[in-house]
Write a structure and sequence with these properties.
single chain; alpha/beta; Uracil-DNA Glycosylase, subunit E; 7-stranded mixed beta sheet; 8 helices; 7 strands
Length: about 180
């Protein structure tokens, strides 16, 4: 299948000053910057991967990573626009080496809670176990029994998928978006 679409760098929402100054976990010492979110901050759909991923080359040039490319192509294929999505990660900093995942997720949860309260998404989509466990606020949550159905979490209709499925092919996410686009 030929896709007539070229992924682009979506606009980033500037981080809040308390997130920029956050020192609650070791990621504060690793980070180059805080990534608050991208896409439309007022979008009805909030997508939640575990972390922001790579955005710049070592020399500082911006690029669209493979996961974001797959996401954008899936959005395009089902007829949605970038204005329909807001992507914000559980972690607000990209980890560049090993870190205490539980501590970092707990530290960033207050930022995510603030975003959810301010943005009031109509639906959310969690990518990966870390995102599910953080969004559900339950370290025992597991994607396997949760995927393929809708759940109400924090009062928000929510679906989940393995993060690697978005990176590898986007089939699950594409099917999810197709259902949204045809609601």
């Amino acid at each position: 299948m030929t896709i007539d679409y070229t992924p682009t760098i979506w606009p980033e929402e500037p981080p809040l000053i308390d997130a920029v100054n956050c020192q609650k976990c070791e990621l504060a010492m690793q980070r180059k910057r805080v990534i608050w979110g991208e896409g439309d901050p007022n979008a009805p759909i909030m997508v939640l991967p575990d972390n922001p991923g790579a955005r710049e080359t070592p020399s500082g040039e911006s690029f669209v990573c493979g996961t974001r490319q797959t996401l954008q192509i899936a959005v395009h294929q089902v007829g949605l626009q970038k204005e329909n999505l807001y992507i914000t990660s559980i972690l607000k900093c990209r980890p560049i080496r090993a870190y205490q995942k539980d501590t970092a997720c707990s530290a960033c949860l207050s930022h995510l809670n603030r975003q959810i309260l301010e943005k009031s998404p109509q639906m959310s989509f969690c990518l990966g176990n870390v995102a599910v466990q953080s969004f559900w606020d339950d370290p025992t949550s597991d994607i396997k029994p949760l995927q393929g159905t809708w759940h109400t979490v924090r009062g928000i209709p929510t679906a989940v998928s393995y993060h690697r499925w978005l990176s590898a092919a986007g089939r699950i996410f594409l099917a999810f978006l197709w259902r949204i686009g045809n609601r």
